[in-house]
Amino acid sequence: MFHFFSNPHNVLRLSSQVLAVGLVMLLGGIYGAYLYAGTLSILVLVSMHALTILGPTLLKVGYVMRLLSQYRIHSQVAAVVA
Q1: Residue 24 lies in a domain
Q2: Number of folded domains in the chain?
């Protein structure tokens, strides 16, 4: 498990997936909670509103993972060049 996260390229690939899932969750939650005019049960409606909170959370986590992996890749390249 820790071996996976020690490779910054794996973390970069995972961060892209986390960003994509977060975006889909956010857009699905916005559509279901605010734009869909059909009748939804209260459980589905609460779930859609929860997606509008969880989606941006995943976006933030994915963005931080991306920044950290790019920093580690840059520092590895700088160490090889120097």
Answers
A1: yes
A2: 1
